Amino acid sequence: MSRVARMFIPRYLTCYQWLVLILCSAEISAGCPSTRLHRAKVMEWDLQDQLNPLMSQMKPLPNVCYPDFINARQEERADNVLPGSNKQAHSSRRPRNSTKSLYSATNTEKIIPGVNDTAPNMEQAVRNNHDGIYPSTLLAMACIYESAPYVNGAPQNTFVPGCAELAEELGRFIGGHDFKSGQTKIKSCLAEFLVNSGIKPLSIASYNHLVSSSLLSNTTASWRCEYLRSSTFLFSFNIYSSGLLDRGGRNKIVISNVTCQDSLLAIPLILDLVIITKLLTRVQYRKPSGNATEESDVQKLYPVLSLLSSMLKASLVRPGPDVINGAARQRAAIDHFLMALLGLQPLTEWEQSKIMA
């Protein structure tokens, strides 16, 4: 991308480097990142050893934490939180006035009429310290006020209607939801392949054997969020299937992901999201005018960054257009956008010269 858009040089610090990545973290756990790296048991030991010298020097910034909106297994580790329970203070812009962009992975939210359904209602609810205003929404509001792009990389419904409306009114960039890394990418790509081949999947069943996570996370609110998120791009989603695969189906495909390392796969996704988001915030355009002597005003892209859908499960798009969840079409959208920046015509699978006499 650095050779196409000329905005990011990842390895060399030169006078032509337009974007330098400085990564930090705000977490509810104050433990040493290197210790948590070993405790998670996700990355290979060799990689952990290489990261230890760097990770041991880091300390996460405190984050917003409300007991009702964190996972049960995280309560004992919540020792690095912002003091108090005043949500208007937590949504203050001052703690993040130097933040350029923010990626979030937190909890589950719901839409409450009269509270977070419109931007004015949501701002009033924050002033009233309403229980229906959630931590990730407060972070999103802080970024919106500070003109910092906010990307939601977790399955929660951060961009409730009021939050999305606020971003659109102020022209701030947002994107979401939820990383599309390992298992989900396999299922979505396979479903797209079957549909494009003329085969209609009747059901897609998913079984999670990670007891340490699923049994503590499988609350009503958490599971409802998982169901809604997955059903946006899969026809049917069932948890803990029992006998679904032997009920008269003609063709059954079973995939066993033994070495599931979604957390490791998410690392390059974070970098991709940050870089592409930063690129999209810098693009400006003019709409064509019927009068050759007149030019329309320069505009930025629409605040909802739908081009990020290639890396996220539940695509967040502007109201009106259909949601596209096909992996190939989502990737092609990014390719065609970069080509448009260079003034090139988009590629198509159909070429007239190949069929004309």
From TrEMBL:
<keyword id="KW-0732">Signal</keyword>
<dbReference type="GO" id="GO:0006021">
    <property type="term" value="P:inositol biosynthetic process"/>
</dbReference>
<feature type="signal peptide">
    <location>
        <begin position="1"/>
        <end position="30"/>
    </location>
</feature>
<dbReference type="GO" id="GO:0004512">
    <property type="term" value="F:inositol-3-phosphate synthase activity"/>
</dbReference>
<dbReference type="GO" id="GO:0008654">
    <property type="term" value="P:phospholipid biosynthetic process"/>
</dbReference>
<dbReference type="InterPro" id="IPR036291">
    <property type="entry name" value="NAD(P)-bd_dom_sf"/>
</dbReference>
<feature type="region of interest" description="Disordered">
    <location>
        <begin position="77"/>
        <end position="103"/>
    </location>
</feature>
<dbReference type="InterPro" id="IPR002587">
    <property type="entry name" value="Myo-inos-1-P_Synthase"/>
</dbReference>
<protein>
    <submittedName>
        <fullName>Inositol-3-phosphate synthase</fullName>
    </submittedName>
</protein>
<dbReference type="Pfam" id="PF07994">
    <property type="entry name" value="NAD_binding_5"/>
</dbReference>
